[in-house]
Structures are given as structure tokens and as C-alpha cells.
Design brief:
The complex is a heterodimer.
Chain A (H helix, E strand, L loop, with lengths): L1 H26 L1 H8 L4 H9 L3 H5 L17 H29 L5 H22 L12 H24 L3 H17 L14 H35 L2
Helix pairs in contact in A: 1-5, 1-9, 2-9, 5-6, 5-9, 6-7, 6-9, 7-8
Chain B lengths: L1 H7 L6 H23 L4 H13 L6
The chains are: A mainly alpha, B mainly alpha.
Chain lengths: ~240, ~60
């Protein structure tokens, strides 16, 4: 029984991940490649000077400043990106499945759409309010600080949405709304000085819009598929 | 009316099955999302680089 639920989520992640890979290849990845053309060793160095040494060391090392393995540009890099999307899709679908089983209500693709939309809010849209999607080369605060803020915001947003949707009284719903707002009052870590690192502002703006729209479509598809597969998988018993 | 009836139906799982499925899915899901989106290893970062940027994970 548990196996069927996990399998349903993995299948949904596989399909949605493959789909979003196609969409990214068309609209999102070309912007990343274009930004990398502006990312010179000089800007990378300038970036690392303004923050602490640990961040600099684990900083951008895609191709020029360390010997760490990286996929070759071309088919290999595209394959790893698609693989990333599929694993991420499976991971997100499992989290949706955990929410659905905890809730315990029967589910179908329509229910799944609402779960997917909530996942988009919690994992993409609300964190983007503090940390907008960034292109390689743009100045940013210390990585660990941003990751912690991101994870806390995702957790608070998911918990907040659940309290608003499932809370049995208004006090719980108000608490949920507060959880949505608090991370943005605290505020995300930002660099002392903003800089696009030479990346044109138009490119950065285009990237924010396209990556969020692509993520939104991905989450809706992922939610609908997860709801459908879990509903069907448990029905046959 | 039919819609209301449908959404109020429950999953055909016992309480223990629900809790076990929730824990298994949540742990595995967190593990995958953490590994792909957050893990600081250079190799993981480089492999997942474009996907991390596209999903707006904080990345380098």
C-alpha cells in the first residue's frame, strides 16, 4: 500500500520532470547560458571578495575556477539538467503525497491541482519574494544564510497554507496567515551592494518571469498527476 | 453535489498506514529535494546547476 503511494509520486515526478525539462530547454536554460557569457573570472573574484571566504570557495565553480567535476556543455549538461528535474519532481511529488496521506481525503487530479498550486506558492512564489530567481554571476549574500532563509520560508509557508486550508477555527487560520508573512518581515539576506555582475537587467528580468511561469506550470502538472495516480493506485483495492 | 460527496470520501487506508505512508513519503521527498536543491558538494552543485537556477534555489 505504501509502495503504491510512493510509486504514484515517483511516476508523477518522472512525467512532470520530463515535461518541464522540455519547457526549460526552450525558455529558461538559454538565459542561463547567455548570462554565463558575462560571467568572467574577474567578476567571480570580485563577488568572492565582498563575502566570507567559505562562500567564495563554494562559490561558482562551474567551469573556470576549480577542478571539481562538472558536466560537459552540450548533451551531457542537458542530460544532467533533465535528470535534476526528474529527481526534483519525484521529491516534490513525494512531499505532496505526504500531505495528501496525512490529510487522508480521497484524491483525484482536481484535488491534486490545488496541492500543486500550494506547492508552487510554498516552494517557488513566496520564497521568490525575498530571493528572486537569480542568473549565474549576479551578486548575492552568503550562500548558507540564503539557504537557511529559503528552507525556513518554505516550511513556514507550507505550514501557514495548511493551517489556513485545514484549520478548524479562525485563530488557527490567522496563525497560518502570520506564518506566511513573518519570513518577509524578517527579510532574506541580501548582499551589501546589489550588482548583476555585468548581466544585462533585461536578461535578469526575463529570467525571473520565465523561470517562475515554468515552475508554476510544472507544479500544477505535478499536483494533478500525483492526485490522479494516488487516487487510481488506491482505488483498485 | 457529487463533487462534495467525492471530496469528503477518505483514502482507503488505516490510521497506521496513513502515518507510515506520510512518514515514508516525507522523508524520501525531503532527502531528494535536499540532495538536488541544497547539498553543498561541488559535484552535486555542478550536476544540478541549471535546474537549481531554474527552480530559484539559492545557488552560489
Amino acid at each position: 500500500m505504501i509502495g503504491r503511494i510512493l510509486l504514484a509520486a515517483v511516476a508523477a515526478g518522472l512525467i512532470a520532470g520530463a515535461f518541464v525539462s522540455g519547457a526549460q530547454m526552450l525558455k529558461v536554460v538559454p538565459l542561463i547560458y547567455a548570462a554565463e557569457a558575462y560571467e568572467t573570472p574577474a567578476t567571480t573574484e570580485a563577488h568572492s571578495h565582498s563575502h566570507d571566504a567559505a562562500a567564495a570557495e563554494s562559490g561558482h565553480n562551474h567551469d573556470h575556477d576549480t577542478a571539481a567535476w562538472a558536466p560537459e556543455d552540450g548533451v551531457e549538461r542537458i542530460t544532467y539538467t533533465a535528470l535534476t528535474n526528474i529527481v526534483l519532481g519525484a521529491g516534490f511529488a513525494l512531499l505532496i503525497a505526504a500531505g495528501m496521506t496525512l490529510r487522508g481525503r480521497a484524491t483525484d487530479w482536481r484535488q491534486g491541482l490545488i496541492w500543486g498550486a500550494s506547492g508552487f506558492l510554498a516552494f517557488s512564489l513566496l520564497p521568490a519574494l525575498g530571493l528572486p530567481p537569480e542568473l549565474p554571476g549576479m551578486a548575492a549574500a552568503d550562500l548558507t544564510g540564503r539557504q537557511i532563509w529559503w528552507a525556513m520560508t518554505v516550511a513556514a509557508s507550507a505550514g501557514g497554507l495548511a493551517l489556513i486550508a485545514f484549520g478548524s477555527n479562525w485563530a488557527l487560520r490567522f496563525l497560518g496567515a502570520a506564518l506566511l508573512i513573518i519570513p518577509h518581515i524578517v527579510g532574506a539576506p541580501h548582499p551589501d551592494e546589489f550588482s548583476t555582475g555585468g548581466v544585462p537587467a533585461e536578461l535578469a528580468a526575463q529570467f525571473v518571469a520565465t523561470s517562475l511561469v515554468t515552475a508554476g506550470v510544472f507544479w500544477l502538472l505535478l499536483g494533478a498527476l500525483t492526485g490522479h495516480f494516488i487516487g487510481r493506485g488506491l482505488q483498485t483495492d | 453535489m457529487e463533487q462534495t460527496k467525492h471530496t469528503q470520501a477518505t483514502l482507503p487506508l488505516t490510521f497506521q498506514q496513513r502515518i507510515a505512508a506520510t512518514l515514508a513519503a516525507a522523508l524520501l521527498g525531503t532527502f531528494l529535494v535536499y540532495g538536488v536543491g541544497i547539498a553543498n558538494s561541488d559535484t552535486m552543485h555542478n550536476a544540478a546547476h541549471d535546474g537549481r537556477h531554474a527552480f530559484a534555489f539559492p545557488c552560489h
